[in-house]
Amino acid sequence: GAVVSQHPSRVICKSGTSVKIECRSLDFQATTMFWYRQFPKQSLMLMATSNEGSKATYEQGVEKDKFLINHASLTLSTLTVTSAHPEDSSFYICSARVPGSGQPQHFGDGTRLSIL
Amino acid sequence: ELKVEQNPLFLSMQEGKNYTIYCNYSTTSDRLYWYRQDPGKSLESLFVLLSNGAVKQEGRLMASLDTKARLSTLHITAAVHDLSATYFCAVGSGGGADGLTFGKGTHLIIQP
């Protein structure tokens, strides 16, 4: 079945560090991928839509200069959290939808980011 | 702005019992999803509902969609402990090209 791979699964780093998270669609091409953030015991919030070959679309309240998104190929989107601070600590999850009617969005395994 | 309301947010039930989780959404949508999340894990797709009156079943779980009422239900039949998890409904629009708006989730605990 369709698989979305996300890497790394866990990052612990110091405040001020920039962190890059990769999201790959392993057996299908995804012109659009999505990035979500989930705080502990809360729901998922859509951060941005990553579009292959064009600029990402950010949700209201999400700083585009803080969360850099690059979708350079049909199977890879990256999210870079720049100059991360403790308040950026969260669970970041990407998703992609297999083309075709009735297909769900498949989610990566998530990246748990902890900023000290 | 699309809003998705889920209830209950917390549910503790005994094995063997039946229960229903409700998901209401505020604007017209062409697809509704149900996902399961185990602690510390990502989301597992359960159902995709595309049309009014759609009903899907997998094991002890059954999901339905009423687009006129903007309501979806996830029914659990004869619950077993392995179904303990957090269940999210999510709504998409724009032909599937948009990101999803999630409900707050239902934290389900099934006790022996």
Give the radius of gyration of chain A. 13 Å
Mean pLDDT of chain A: 92
- Can you write the helix and strand succession of chain B as a string? EEEEEEEEEEE
Strand content of chain B: over 45%
Average pLDDT across residues of chain B? Answer: 92
Q: What multimeric state do the chains show?
A: heterodimer
* Class computed from helices, strands and strand pairing of chain A: mainly beta
User: How much helix, percentage-wise, in residues of chain B?
Assistant: under 10%
Rg result of chain B: 13 Å
Taking the sheet with the most strands of chain B, its summary is:
6 strands, mixed
Strand content of chain A: over 45%
What does it look like?
The complex is a heterodimer of chains A (116) and B (112). With 116 residues, chain A is an all-beta fold. Chain A is built from no helices and 11 strands. In chain A, strands 2, 4, 5, 6, 9, 10 and 11 form a 7-stranded mixed sheet that branches. Chain A is globular, with a radius of gyration of 13 Å. Chain A starts with a strand and ends with a strand. The mean pLDDT of chain A is 92. Chain B is mainly beta. Chain B has no helices and 11 strands. In chain B, strands 2, 4, 5, 9, 10 and 11 form a 6-stranded mixed sheet that branches. Chain B starts with a strand and ends with a strand.
List keywords for this structure.
heterodimer; A: mainly beta; 7-stranded mixed beta sheet; 11 strands; B: mainly beta; 6-stranded mixed beta sheet; 5-stranded antiparallel beta sheet
Protein topology:
The complex is a heterodimer of chains A (116) and B (112).
Chain A: E1 4-7, E2 10-13, E3 19-25, E4 32-38, E5 44-51, E6 57-58, E7 67-73, E8 76-81, E9 90-97, E10 105-107, E11 111-115
Parallel strand pairs in A: 2-11
Antiparallel strand pairs in A: 1-3, 3-8, 4-5, 4-9, 5-6, 7-8, 9-10, 9-11
Chain B: E1 4-7, E2 10-14, E3 19-25, E4 31-37, E5 43-49, E6 55-58, E7 61-66, E8 71-76, E9 85-92, E10 101-102, E11 106-111
Parallel strand pairs in B: 2-11
Antiparallel strand pairs in B: 1-3, 3-8, 4-5, 4-9, 6-7, 7-8, 9-10, 9-11
